[in-house]
Design a protein that fits this description.
With 547 residues, the protein is an alpha/beta fold. 44% of the residues lie in helices and 13% in strands. The chain folds into three domains: 12-197 and 226-251, Rossmann fold, CATH 3.40.50; 260-292; 306-542, NAD(P)-binding Rossmann-like Domain (Rossmann fold).
């Protein structure tokens, strides 16, 4: 069998940032395709080690190393001159050198960090294009320039602000270069990788955890590797891409294709439109919308929700009690706790086995541990875990609250959530399935005076949930939940008589229970709100039913 033709036979290429990660994979692939390569990197020790490792294989690969800081024009100019001196010409320039750059929020990013990020990621690409194109124009035979961009250049949220800005600049700089250099038959394209498992990404992290996180982030079932990117760069450098220029090629496992469409139930604007339509009597705009459903569908057991075991903390009153009653009515098994033994006795008398209720203070880790061991010993791990138990503070400024009152709110709302997670998650992880819902609040997403401890605890719940979502394996999910504004004892304490203007816990549970039962692993990390429960409802006398 004949070997396939090598697409880059005798081409001369420069690969910046070629000592590790994607750049290293590009260097190796270019050599396999027959190219003569100058590996450029600012890390001289790593670059020389790569060069020696290739030379030790004894294949006579035509490769050279050049130490280069791509942010410095003199370095880039010397790099291009070195390639021509060593190999006689230059056919391809791969501007790959990069850095994670400044990661702080914009208001905390120093000018020095911002400028350094732009210098490597954007100015370095500009300099590579400039000096490579000069040689290619002088040669008069055309050439190929490939710039490493990123999916972060397509959105404001896939990387740090400085990084995303620079990569967006690379994509548009590529288009500008394609327009200006096309007349010289010099093609210029960019490549936007998704989550690629490189040494930079894995630094200080557990590799298996990062693999799982990468897979959960994209439709494709395997994680992205440098070896997935290198052949695409080689294609763009070859004659097979002769009529391609000014393009940005995605190599991302489908990440960019996975943004929620308007009426998917995951798009804030789509949800707002859907709620408005629903209020005017339109039942559904699109079959894909998970937010727009007839009230009867939300309020009754449906075939697509199999019986679940649901663990709820704080079942003694308010939302926890209403949720318990509704879930039992819908045919699900409830495991619940509250501090009041009298309430536990009443719940046990009303709902016997397989339901289970215990007196537990979630702020006491020892009590939670004993409860978890007893529960897990007699039944499977919960399918759905709701951290609902909460305490509130008196309506006072922070400096007027006692240390004990502040600590009590934090201990129940935050440490109590952690205690429950610590003791029940291992069983869920062993089964590799389950949904965690950490109850937050509107005051976990914005602030208000006189509820400092409560705000602090619920903002912490939002952050804790985001961390947990990154730690869970595929098949599981952690979400934070703004339940809405509901006429509970806590709301009465804060709102007084105005609390009557909002739905009762029982009305809330009619909507919330089916909504929470439908949370899927794909929702991992989302900050959810119970539909229709986060706005003013009007005087109770004017309300006919919960919409």
């Amino acid at each position: 069998m004949m070997n396939p033709p090598r697409r880059l036979e005798n081409r001369v290429a420069i690969v910046t940032g070629g000592a590790s990660g994607i750049g290293h994979a590009i260097v190796l692939h270019f050599l396999q395709e027959g190219a003569r390569v100058v590996l450029a990197d600012m890390n001289c020790q790593t670059g020389m080690a790569v060069l020696q490792a290739i030379e030790l294989k004894g294949n006579g690969d035509p490769i050279r190393f050049f130490e280069c800081d791509v942010s410095q024009e003199a370095d880039v100019a010397r790099l291009v001159q070195f390639a021509v001196q060593e190999f006689g010409r230059l056919d391809c320039m791969v501007n790959n050198a990069g850095t994670g750059g400044a990661t702080n929020p914009l208001v905390k990013t120093s000018v020095e960090d911002w400028d350094r990020t732009q210098a490597i990621l954007l100015r370095g690409v500009f300099l590579g294009i400039k000096h490579a194109a000069k040689v290619m124009i002088r040669q008069g035979e055309g050439g190929a320039i490939v710039n490493m961009a990123s999916i972060a250049g397509l959105t404001g949220g896939a990387g740090g602000a400085a990084y995303s800005t620079a990569k967006a600049g690379v994509i548009n700089l590529t288009r500008c270069a394609a327009i200006q250099l096309g007349q010289y038959r010099i093609r210029c394209n960019s490549v936007s990788p998704g989550t690629i498992l490189t040494p930079l990404l894995l630094r200080g992290a557990d590799p298996e955890t990062m693999r799982e996180a990468a897979c959960a982030f994209q439709p494709w079932p395997e994680p992205g590797l440098p070896e997935h990117v290198a052949p695409v760069v080689a294609f763009l450098a070859s004659d097979a891409a002769e009529f391609m220029t000014g393009e940005n090629v995605l190599v991302d496992g489908g990440v960019a294709a996975g943004a929620p469409f308007l009426y998917s139930g995951q798009h804030p604007l789509g949800n707002a439109i859907a709620e408005r339509m629903k209020a005017t009597g339109v039942q559904s705009f699109d079959a894909g919308s998970t937010q727009v459903q007839p009230q009867s569908d939300l309020a009754s057991p449906v075939a697509d929700i199999p019986p679940k075991t649901v663990l709820i903390t704080g079942v003694g009153r308010g939302l926890g009690r209403a949720m318990t009653d509704k879930l039992v009515q819908l045919g699900h098994t409830v495991i619940g706790c509250t501090r009041s033994q009298a309430v536990v006795d009443e719940l046990r008398a009303r709902y016997g086995p397989p339901h289970r209720f215990d007196s537990v203070d979630v702020a006491d880790d020892g009590r939670v541990r004993a409860w978890a061991e007893s529960v897990v010993a007699e039944r499977p791990a919960p399918d759905l875990l709701m951290n609902n138990a909460a305490a509130t503070n008196r309506n006072l400024q922070i400096w007027r609250l006692s240390p004990e009152e502040f600590a009590q709110v934090i201990n129940v709302n935050l440490l109590g959530t952690v205690n429950v997670l610590r003791n029940f998650l291992p069983a869920m992880l062993r089964r590799k399935s389950g949904i965690v819902v950490n109850f937050s609040s509107g005051w976990g997403r914005e602030a208000a005076p006189n509820v400092g401890p409560y705000c602090a605890s619920k903002w912490a719940i939002e952050g804790l949930t985001q961390v947990l979502a990154k730690e869970l394996p595929p098949g599981m999910a952690a979400v934070s939940l703004h339940p809405g504004i509901v006429n509970t004892d806590s709301l009465k304490k804060a709102f007084g008589a105005r609390a009557e203007e909002y739905p009762s816990p029982a009305e809330w549970a009619e909507v919330a229970a089916p909504y929470l039962l439908r949370i899927r692993p794909q929702d991992n990390g989302r900050a959810l709100s119970v539909p229709g429960m986060t706005t003013y409802r009007g005087p109770r006398s004017s309300r006919v039913a919960v919409d």
